[in-house]
Amino acid sequence: MRETDVADTKSLLRIIQSIPSPKAELFKQWLDKVGYERMQELQDPAQSLDRARENWQKLGRSEKWIQQRMTGQETRNKLTDYWKDAGIKEQDEFALLTNIIHQEWTDLSVKQHKALKA
Question: Does residue 105 surpass a pLDDT of 80?
Answer without folding.
Answer: no
